[in-house]
Specification:
This is Acetylornithine/succinylornithine family transaminase. Pathway: Amino-acid biosynthesis. Keywords: Amino-acid biosynthesis, Aminotransferase, Pyridoxal phosphate, Transferase. One of its GO terms (biological process) is L-arginine biosynthetic process. It is a single chain. The chain is of the alpha/beta class. The protein folds into 2 domains: 10-48 and 307-400, Aspartate Aminotransferase, domain 1 (Alpha-Beta Complex), CATH 3.90.1150.10; 63-304, Type I PLP-dependent aspartate aminotransferase-like (Major domain) (Aspartate Aminotransferase, domain 2, 3-Layer(aba) Sandwich), CATH 3.40.640. Helix content is 38%, strand content 18%. The protein contains 12 helices and 17 strands. The strands form 4 sheets. Strands 4-12-11-10-7-5-6 form a 7-stranded mixed sheet, sandwiched between helices. A 4-stranded mixed sheet has the order 1-2-3-15. A 4-stranded antiparallel sheet has the order 13-14-17-16. Helix 3 (63-75) runs antiparallel to helix 9 (289-304), helix 4 crosses helix 9 and helix 10 packs parallel to helix 12 (382-401). Bound molecules: pyridoxal-5'-phosphate. The site of pyridoxal-5'-phosphate has 15 residues, from helix 5.
């Protein structure tokens, strides 16, 4: 049978021949994007509910990002990580003011922000806690793909990945305060958790769990670190997910949505943890002026357009639509906050559904064989949600019900 897509696409042939294999990618090459849509090199159009993997918070190719890049690149592309620069100072002021944490270190990826947090926790243990070095993390968590963050990650099957792994991470079940209490020893310097486990399948932390963690950490002099790489900057309906819990962490990591697609991350920390000495931490691109200018533009736009509030409203509408089709398709455990949502399928046929949706012009993510995750841009409209629902239903009618 002839495929709809031309398999002779020269871009695709070259991609398959020259890009190092890391994943079974769909056989398309993306070319341009606008708002909620992407187009491939064959001219096919896709409605994007992956949102650049919870990254393109303002949609695809927003004018504010191109304007910021154009303006900043005409002034200063790169000074040196050895100098402060103007957009770096402005962005630091904005983020520290918004978060209530007084210090910030800038990086390019979520893994790098978490590496910085891990180093800061170990530094804290070394100088203030008799050499304590252990960091407690949770099962089913995701913290990145560098060697330290791989070791910190609680994904099943990752325990022996790239062995020998960096020691010093203790994994406990998520949402289990007793397990944390049991795991704390004099060697514990920090606890690192996500408030919603995003890659793990969109599982929310219980408020009392996070509140009890704060009390426990205060009592025992342990750093409380929130990985908000996926949940930060409006995604869950508030600027930071910790606002839902009324708990301020000691360290907060941000990436994904903060750059709207430009590589940018941040680790924020309380003044009392401003502990690095010269040479402990750095990076050629820390505070990179183009990244800083984009971050300022993106976060400024998120604030000005009240996108956290919009994410809460559109997320509630999307949830309501999903509940409306729940029975028809046997969907279970519809969950999430704001525009970070997921549901389970009656059978583990997620990959098949994702692929069928792609061919129908809709991009969705299967975070596991039986879980579908939706994380569209924060600018998504009700009309685009309706369009997504109708595409999803027509595909599910075909593959599940044979209609
Ligand atoms: C994506 C993600 C990371 C890793 O970010 P990268 O930019 O891919 O390094 C870390 N933590 C969480 C919670 C994430 O969702």
């Amino acid at each position: 049978m002839e495929k709809v897509k031309t398999v002779t696409n020269e871009w695709l042939e070259e991609a398959n021949a020259s890009i190092l294999f890391i994943a079974n990618r769909p056989q398309v090459v993306m070319e341009h994007g606008k708002g909620m849509y992407l187009w491939d090199t064959d001219g096919n159009k896709y409605l994007d509910f992956i949102g650049g993997w919870a990254v393109t918070s303002l949609g695809h190719s927003p004018k504010v990002i191109s304007d910021a890049l154009l303006e900043q690149s005409g002034k200063l592309v790169h000074a040196s990580p050895g100098f402060y620069n103007k957009p770096m100072v402005e962005f630091a002021r904005l983020l520290t003011g918004l978060s209530g944490l007084e210090r910030v270190f800038f990086g390019s990826t979520g893994a790098e922000a978490n590496e910085s947090a891990i180093k800061l926790a170990r530094k804290y243990g070394a100088v203030r806690k008799n050499g304590a070095f252990e960091i407690i993390t949770t099962k089913r968590s995701f913290h990145g793909r560098s060697l330290a963050t791989t070791a910190a990650t609680g994904k099943a099957g990752w325990e022996h990945m790239f062995a020998p792994q960096l020691p010093g991470f203790v994994k406990v079940p998520f949402n289990d305060i007793e397990a944390i209490k049991q795991a704390i020893t004099p060697n514990t310097c920090a606890i690192l958790v996500e408030l919603i486990q995003g890659e793990g399948g969109v599982y929310e932390a219980i408020p009392s769990y996070i509140q009890e963690l704060r009390t426990l950490c205060d009592e025992q002099g342990i750093m409380l670190m929130f990985d908000e790489v996926q949940t930060g900057i409006g995604r869950t309906g508030t600027m930071f997910a910790y606002e839902h819990y009324g708990v301020l962490p000691d360290v907060l990591t941000l990436a994904k949505g903060i750059g709207g697609g430009f590589p940018l991350s941040a680790m924020l920390a309380k003044e009392t943890y401003n502990l690095f000495e010269a040479g402990d931490q750095g990076g050629t691109y820390t505070g990179q002026p183009l990244a800083m200018a984009v971050g300022l533009a993106v976060v400024g736009e998120v604030l000005q357009r009240k996108l956290p509030q919009q994410a809460a409203e559109q997320g509630a509408y999307l949830l309501q639509q999903l509940h409306g089709i729940q029975e028809r398709y046997g969907l279970t455990d519809i969950r999430g906050k704001g525009l970070l949502l997921a549901f389970d399928l009656p059978e583990p046929r997620g990959a098949e559904l994702v692929s069928a949706c792609l061919h129908a012009g809709l991009l969705i993510n299967a975070s596991s064989p039986s879980t579908i995750r939706l994380m569209p841009a924060l600018i998504v409209s009700k009309a685009e949600i309706d369009e997504m629902m109708s595409l999803l239903c027509s595909v599910m009618d075909r593959i599940y019900r044979g209609d």
